[in-house]
Amino acid sequence: MDPHKPQGAGPPAITGFATDFAAQDLRTVRHAVATYLHDARVERDLAEDVVVAVNELLANAIRHGGGRGRLDLATDDTTITCSVTDYGGAAVIPTITEPRPDVPGGRGLWLVDRLCDTLDIDPHPDGLTVTVNIHLTSPWPTTRR
After folding, report:
1. Which residues 6+ apart lie within 8 Å of 69 measured at CB?
2. What pLDDT digit, counting tens, does each position of 4-31 carry?
3. How far apart are CA 106 and CA 119, in angstroms?
4. Nearest C-alpha neighbor of 122 from the set 132, 107, 134, 111
5. What pLDDT does residue 113 have?
6. CATH of the domain spanning 16-135
7. Which of 74, 107, 116, 140 lies in the 20 to 30 Å Cα band around 42?
């Protein structure tokens, strides 16, 4: 221990969870994410929002991204970061717009964008990676966006 370094100083502790998934794994992965967030002591309402967002990202990767993907989830003292990578080949980056009430579907990324503080979509040679961040102490008092 360094006597010149104040106790508690330094980078925040980071924990993580990662898994590959396919359609048959959705329920298991949702439960694993909920358990991980519970163990990380994430507040219940926020954890439920994160599980919904992760589920939407997983479902999009399965439906539009080749039927399988990888989830990487991490928390530190201030932020939850979730990345979902699909392997659906070269893809067009989707535009996130408010869905029309008379058109079914098309609400997944819009919902994720509302539940999370940031959303980034990055292409890679085999598909897309969608990364979201949820701040544990959000500047929004009652709603995300």
Report:
1. 20, 21, 58, 61, 62, 84, 85, 86, 87, 127
2. 334 444 445 567 889 999 999 999 999 9
3. 16
4. 132
5. 94
6. 3.30.565.10
7. 107
